[in-house]
């Protein structure tokens, strides 16, 4: 990971305290993700993989996991 600090972004849908969300950031050529309630665990992915996931989420492919 990059030595420069990561600027984390969280969704406006995460709730008042922001403890119920995933946070995304950028590190060199990778996208990094963490849970706001456990920021010590960070996973990385590529932009194309994240784009494919977001497209699937927008299309409702994961809606069954929410119930």
Q: Given the structure, what is the number of helices? A: 1
Kindly report the spatial arrangement of strands forming the biggest sheet: 1-2-3-4
Low-confidence blocks of residues:
none
Structural class: alpha+beta
Our count of domains comes out at 1
Order of helices and strands: EEEEH
Tell how many strands the DSSP assignment holds. Answer: 4
By oligomeric state, this entry counts as single chain
Percentage of residues in strands:
25-35%
Main sheet, how many strands, which sense, barrel?
4 strands, antiparallel
How would you state the average pLDDT, rounded?
89
End-to-end gap: 35 Å
Global Rg: 13 Å
Helix content: 10-25%
Shape: globular
Would you write up a description of this structure?
This protein has 67 residues and is α+β, with helices and mostly antiparallel strands. It has one domain. It is 18% helix and 33% strand. The protein has one helix at 47-58, and strands at 9-10, 22-27, 30-35, 38-45. Strands 1-2-3-4 form a 4-stranded antiparallel beta sheet.
């Amino acid at each position: 990971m990059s030595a420069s600090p990561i600027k984390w972004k969280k969704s406006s849908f995460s709730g008042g305290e922001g403890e119920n969300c995933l946070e995304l950031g950028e590190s060199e050529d990778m996208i990094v993700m963490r849970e706001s309630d456990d920021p010590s665990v960070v996973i990385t992915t590529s932009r194309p993989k994240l784009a494919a996931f977001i497209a699937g989420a927008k299309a409702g492919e994961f809606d069954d996991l929410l119930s």
